[in-house]
Amino acid sequence: MSRYADAGRSLRLDPDSFAGGYFRNAVYRHWDPYEDIPQELLEQDLENMKAAEMTFEEFEGFRAAIAKFGAGEEAVTEDLAPLMLTLEDINDQMFVSSQIYEEAKHTQFFDRYWRDVIDPAAEAKGFEVTRPTDERYFNQDYEALFDKTEAAMHRLLEDGGDTPENRVRAFCHYHLAVESVLAQTAYWGLQASFSETGPENWNLEEGEEQLVLDGLIEGITRIRSDEGRHVGFGMHKVRELVQEGGVDGAIVQETLNELLPHIAGTVQTEFDTGQDQTPLIEYASEKLSKRIEIITEREAEVPPVEELVQIEGLDEEQVAD
């Protein structure tokens, strides 16, 4: 028996397929979490943080957010493997392999930021130096969200577990709930909080001086660009299963309804500044509504990948370099 399940192919790959185009985009937009994030930017972040008037509680809240980002990226690096193993098409498999690689890079960026900025800043301020893996940084909602995502992915490897419905649930957990709603909303919140060129600074009190962290913002801007591509791939696969595979679209809504309370509980602890949370909630709601519409409406389409990877805060030439 041939080791190739589809040995009848005339050529090995289909570069014109949806996943093939996404894989090419990932290769084109490759970035290095060390080489492409200059050390000078992180050194300036450190100096800005040293100079900022921050209470221990404020500093602890900031590094709790960074700890969650780093742990989340590490978790999805581990949990995507079952999805790659169950997808039959080599073009799909190659794209998911690029996702796993990119999630690993994101993990590396947050590890570097903790070592080069957060720990030295804590020492300079006389605060306790902590580990990014400290249990204090992960509340019950955060842990429940990622435990359920891991279970949804590994269910695909169980006997009888790889069904169209379970694939939809797996994509909804990771690509829609974790990446499209939680991660992109939280990253938007960071850009709003620590960038002069990002979204409106929704959580600054009147007259409060902004803490600018350009090294952090450059890193998460590139991460958000990668995740735009990941979300687009997930939406396409779910839409395909719902529109053409006969999966009931209600599964999408049911899965997200189960996970949204965990997302809300996680986001509220990351940006608990005492300020109005409405802009953050509106951003998350708008993202989710658009994703569901694209999946369930037959006339809707997944935006071009070039649009999905465009993120405010970094121009096209910088992202492409």
UniProtKB/TrEMBL annotation:
- Which SUPFAM superfamilies does this chain map to? Ferritin-like
**A molecular-function term among this protein's GO annotations:** oxidoreductase activity
Q: Which InterPro entries does the record cross-reference, listed alphabetically?
A: Ferritin-like_SF (IPR009078), RNR-like (IPR012348)
List the protein's name: Ribonucleoside-diphosphate reductase
Species whose genome carries this gene? Salinirubellus salinus
